[in-house]
């Protein structure tokens, strides 16, 4: 294969070493990215970055984060790939452009699917929400360039890998799950010879987890060890699997494919990274050495990580994971890829290992293993009763994995296990971090010095951040003066941030104040967008001059489901037409003006070292409950009541009613956009990704228990059901009326977004067949503002919401013993299109700043 491992030494190559980085863009991942970008390009040339989309970040947020860092560093030449909508056939045939959103074992023909392994990663605070936003720092620090995710134009992960490796011999750095690389190797075996080495951060071979241990003096007799001594680091699942590390656990079968590919793998596992925790001495030195923008960004990210870390254990439980791999890999390559892996930063040793993908006994079909269960021929032609044929862990709470009477589980999925049988692969493994050669330095590891030195080099340094990108940058909050104006009924909008919801929000903001007084917005993270998309809500409000409206972040899980899980939201696709598009507003979010307001994980008035669970120290981002209670307490006169419009799962409202016992007393009406009433007529639902559930509508399905709590409560409910929405889903008609209406920034934006949805549906009907779902959601806002213009026909029916069975969850049936609700049956659809377009074209209450381009012009000249 023409590679260096296997020989004592190698000649120094004249050409720079080509590198492809596959990353999930966790905090330590972009530390590794920046470290690579600072290397001399005459020696090391980072050619491409691909996004690992099934681990610590969501694809849309991760890819734009990469674009922003590369823009700051002046490296818009680097090829970036994410996602893809290909699938794997039932016989194991892998189609082109599989996006890596799901582990190989779960991948079918759709990007919707289960979170078997990923559910070990928290969804909200201290999990994907914080990583997607980089704790709120990403938007306040990084500049924004021209590159962004654009539907059907964004290069896929597989496309970037194929193009990059085909162009020349390349070294792969893998610092997320191994899904993308495994897919590439399984579908492009002819390109293996172009891969020099694969450097992988992950696994634990002989490691002993130093976290969760009791003091040696046993001063606290009630202390019970947690992860102490475990091979792995799954802090959410160590009681069921104490052996796995997150990167390997994200897709064990993929990691196995990479390890057994025949390409030399150099592994930097927990064995080594556990020996380089971020010490207070290193942290203090880093605080004093921030001479470049990239050093500032990395330090402030580390600081926020520390200040939001679990308990007060940061300095003993946060390690240099992926950044350490980048240092070890670069140093080995500088030493001409010596057979023994000589380098400055880690002690190396060859070990014979494999990756465990299933648990013994093998060959027993128990319903946990889709590669074998119910198949005459195993998927991918795997060996019957072989190492892949055992029980596959189904999640952190898999009963199979628990040992009766024991504190530690028995499952080993993702374990990089030392073996001596035919499964063994000889791998060069980092054993421990080398001590600092300067014995007088307060930093005890050699890599600490290199990391700070490299990040603070002025060579190949960041050009500017957001505030220095523009000579006259300033943050302005736009708040209207409504003094002495008559206010209409107070309204709270509860949304899951789908494309339709954002247009509904704009419509509500355009409504005359004397009719609608929009008091607050609640967002849920268990619907058509992830929680981090709350920043787009802030941007819409900023555009419309309503920075006075509070935004509350609600639940990220359906009621009655595990915190670590995806029982219902797994029905929403991850790729095109799903979260990838919703989280970016189909690529248009970055054309909106940037609000000074954003999600932030910073504590209000909390100093480092203060208790983390003190009720006085709340996140900078308000919760849905906090916004609700603030609004309800501020109502004047006291007899005023709130009208609620919901356009998403009913999780937030149900939770508020459960916690705030006076909540029902301050609610006048609830308008619910969603549901499909089964009344003897053949009215199909729209949960297209769950074919066994034919009659549920998405908003009800995404949290059926919450839907039942709200719909069957004693509140006055008006239902805007799916069959009513489907009367106004003509893209041609709504675009025509918008085109004829007066032009405002908001009407132009609405036309742009709706045109895009229509074009995507026509170009790729398989991926975008469901765009009418978002178009229909506008009906709720139009009906709420002034339903009299629609000449509606209403019906009152007693209904019941079904729960407890996925094939029926969220369905609404007529039941004579049920709760009576008002249901919109029919209306003047032609009038609807005109009403919508006319209000968006009204010059009153129009946008105060129309776009990011307009904002850039404002920041480029004195005011």
Automatic annotation (TrEMBL):
Domain Inosine/uridine-preferring nucleoside hydrolase: residue ranges: 19-358, 491-833
SUPFAM superfamilies assigned: Nucleoside hydrolase (SSF53590)
Pfam families per record: IU_nuc_hydro
Annotated GO MF terms: hydrolase activity, hydrolyzing N-glycosyl compounds
Family in the record: Belongs to the IUNH family.
Protein name per its UniProtKB record: Inosine/uridine-preferring nucleoside hydrolase domain-containing protein
Provenance organism: Musa acuminata subsp. malaccensis (Wild banana)
